[in-house]
């Protein structure tokens, strides 16, 4: 039998950390949320979409500062005026514009004179407004001297600035999606958790009700609910009710998904240990079940925002959503329902580009979040 010879104990033996035993690594100390953030930043499209959306929301916040003209100001001299032509006259300027009537076609047309440009002033004075609804000011990003008008995206049938109305409409179209999804997410997460955790008769009743909602056609249901709203309702009340209508059906799908997650978590060992330790149902739900389903809820909510934006735009386009004097992207697109109008005045479709841009950005962010929360990515 061979006997192993142990080395004698001596002062020349290095300590454990110098004898090849590595110090504990800090890699395992990275939290799940930090790992998700790293994966999300690795997606360049998703990160770029966050920047684009941030710009859109900043435009909505500073809409009156960015707009050179009031969004609701009508001007018969600018009816269907094309975007202002740019020129250089010792600095950036616009060509002056004169309206005339084409007697052959009985249409108003415009003559431009670029020889005598109208200088564009940066941070110039214009119409008065209240920044953030509190600070009175008359400064705007770009202005021109009266009686000329700077029309970045042209004018509509009543001579109103399309750019100013698009920035103002972003406040409704971009926020109604977030608020509607927030309400729907709260309902879906709460009802789905209750259904999956308690089971039994409560689960059966809630699931049958959810199946009933999912069986209804979404757009006709929205149209019917929006059509019964009074036409003389205030803009604020209509905004709130349209938000509730859009969130009535959206929560059902999320509730079923959360229910499936909670059913899987309810049989986990840590839930059984929490029950053995004397934790109540509320503590188990809010401490163990919902946090584990948070990543899935966030991804589903982010993917639901563009659908809500499209729904509001569709309802307003059809004349049963937000109505004038309210301004939203759907209201602006209602002016472009005629093919002949679009052919003659294509700038009326610019708000549609904003809808497409916002929807694509939200979808890319949702895809990035979905990949970030995937443990196998």
Automatic annotation (TrEMBL):
| GO cellular component terms, A-Z | plasma membrane
Q: Domain ABC transmembrane type-1: where?
A: 170-366
Q: What is its main location?
A: membrane
TM spans (from-to):
45-67, 176-202, 209-229, 235-254, 289-309, 315-333, 345-365
InterPro entries per the record? Answer: MetI-like, MetI-like_sf, OppC_N
Residue ranges, annotated region (Disordered): 1-21
Which compartment or compartments is the protein found in? Answer: Cell membrane; Membrane
Keyword field: Membrane, Transmembrane, Transmembrane helix, Transport
Q: Name one GO biological process term.
A: transmembrane transport
What Pfam families does the annotation carry? BPD_transp_1, OppC_N
UniProt membrane topology term:
Multi-pass membrane protein
Give the similarity note. Belongs to the binding-protein-dependent transport system permease family.
- What this protein is called in its record is Peptide ABC transporter permease
Q: Which organism is it from?
A: Microlunatus endophyticus
- Give the source lineage, highest ranks first: Bacteria, Bacillati, Actinomycetota, Actinomycetes, Propionibacteriales
């Amino acid at each position: 039998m061979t006997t192993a010879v142990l080395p004698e104990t001596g002062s020349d033996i290095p300590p454990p950390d110098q004898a090849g035993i590595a110090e504990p690594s800090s890699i395992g100390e990275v939290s799940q949320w930090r790992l998700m953030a790293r994966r999300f930043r690795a997606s360049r499209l998703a990160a770029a979409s966050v920047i684009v959306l941030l710009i859109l929301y900043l435009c909505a916040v500073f809409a009156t500062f960015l707009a050179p003209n009031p969004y609701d100001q009508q001007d018969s001299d600018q009816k269907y005026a094309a975007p202002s032509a740019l020129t250089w006259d010792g600095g950036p300027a616009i060509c002056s514009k004169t309206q005339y009537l084409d007697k052959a076609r009985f249409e108003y047309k415009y003559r431009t004179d670029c020889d005598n440009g109208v200088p564009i002033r940066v941070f110039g004075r214009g119409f008065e407004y209240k920044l953030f609804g509190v600070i009175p000011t008359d400064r705007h990003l770009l202005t021109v001297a009266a009686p000329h008008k700077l029309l970045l995206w042209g004018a509509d049938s009543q001579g109103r600035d399309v750019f100013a109305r698009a920035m103002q409409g972003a406040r409704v179209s971009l926020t109604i999606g977030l608020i509607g999804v927030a309400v729907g997410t709260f309902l879906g997460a709460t009802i789905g958790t209750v259904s999956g955790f308690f089971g039994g008769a409560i689960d059966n009743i809630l699931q049958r009700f959810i199946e009933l909602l999912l069986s209804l056609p979404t757009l006709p249901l929205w149209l019917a609910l929006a059509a019964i709203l009074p036409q003389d309702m205030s803009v604020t009340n209509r905004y709130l009710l349209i938000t509730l209508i859009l969130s009535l059906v959206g929560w059902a799908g999320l509730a079923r998904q959360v229910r499936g997650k909670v059913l899987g978590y309810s049989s986990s060992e840590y839930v059984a240990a929490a029950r053995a330790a004397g934790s109540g149902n509320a503590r188990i739900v809010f401490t163990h079940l919902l946090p584990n389903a948070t990543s899935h809820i966030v991804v589903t909510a982010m993917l639901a925002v563009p659908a809500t934006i499209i729904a509001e735009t569709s309802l307003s386009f059809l004349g049963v959503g937000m109505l004038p004097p309210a301004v939203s992207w759907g209201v602006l697109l209602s002016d472009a329902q005629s093919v002949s109008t679009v052919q003659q005045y294509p700038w009326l479709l610019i708000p549609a580009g904003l809808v497409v841009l916002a929807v694509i950005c939200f979808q890319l962010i949702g895809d990035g979040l979905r990949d970030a929360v995937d443990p196998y990515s």
